[in-house]
Amino acid sequence: SYSMHISTLLGLWLLGVASGEPVSICRPTGERYFISDTNQCDRFHMCDDNGDLAAEFLCQDGLVYEPISKQCGLPFKIDCIGSGRTKLQEPQGTGRCIRLNGKWPIEGTCDQYIDCTSGVERLVTCQNHLVFDDATGDCEHPDAANRAGCTAEELYGFQCPSTVGQGRYSAESDCRAFFTCAIYTNYHPRLAGCPQGTVFDPVSQQCSEPKDVAGCENYYNE
């Protein structure tokens, strides 16, 4: 039903006065459907059964309208700029929530961010040497995020020696650790480690017994 369909749209507010412009003209289809706003990414419109513009809606603050799924979601994977829908409603955030919904990095850190849902704030820490990617809204390898101030080169103090082929290189600080440089890392270093009981052998570029790797013979004894 129409009421049930409306209830599935996350955090929507019906506006009494329409102030935006729909991206297309309503057409009579025999059923109600939704269309994007031309300029504002968090606004959308409803066409009624007869093809008339019937109502206008706003996503909850921080969410934007995705025209294919016809749902409101976080903007990380929804292309507002590319579609020319760059305007947004005024922020209504509180505390460290810039908007009621969203994710924002904690200043001075690479692996922590604030996750806000309907104005409720949650501190999240990325695990396993991942960093918060403010472009995707996810925890990513530093080479994939390539975020200013949190690049793999800055975090690890290592730079890939070439952009040809693939190679593995020892991490001077730890015999188990090594960096992979490859096309899939965009030739930024990606940190990895050998299984417990082994160390990285830069000659074979494999994980080996400590006794076979010069300088790492006593790694586990130490």
Note the main attributes of this structure.
single chain; 222 residues; mainly beta; 4-stranded antiparallel β-sheet; 3-stranded antiparallel β-sheet; 16 strands
Description:
This protein is mainly beta. The protein contains 3 helices and 16 strands. It has helices spanning 2-7, 142-145, 152-156, and strands spanning 12-14, 33-36, 43-47, 53-59, 64-66, 71-73, 102-105, 112-117, 120-125, 131-133, 138-140, 167-171, 174-181, 190-193, 199-201, 206-208. The strands form 6 sheets. It has a 4-stranded antiparallel beta sheet with strand order 1-4-3-2, with no helix packed on it. It has a 3-stranded antiparallel beta sheet with strand order 7-8-9, with no helix packed on it. The chain starts with a helix and ends in a 14-residue tail after the last strand.
What is the compact description of this entry?
With 222 residues, the protein is mainly β.
Number of helices: 3
Number of strands: 16
Q: Taking strands numbered 1, 2, ... along the chain, how are they ordered across the largest sheet?
A: 1-4-3-2
- What is the helix/strand order? HEEEEEEEEEEEHHEEEEE
> Unreliable runs, pLDDT <50, ≥5 residues?
1-18
Could you report the average pLDDT, rounded to the nearest whole number?
89
Global morphology: elongated
Portion of residues in helices?
Answer: under 10%
Which structural category do the helix and sheet elements fall into? Answer: mainly beta
- Distance N to C terminus: 69 Å
Largest sheet: 4 strands, antiparallel
- Radius of gyration, taken over Cα atoms and rounded to an integer in Å: 25 Å
Kindly estimate the percentage of residues that lie in beta strands according to DSSP. 25-35%
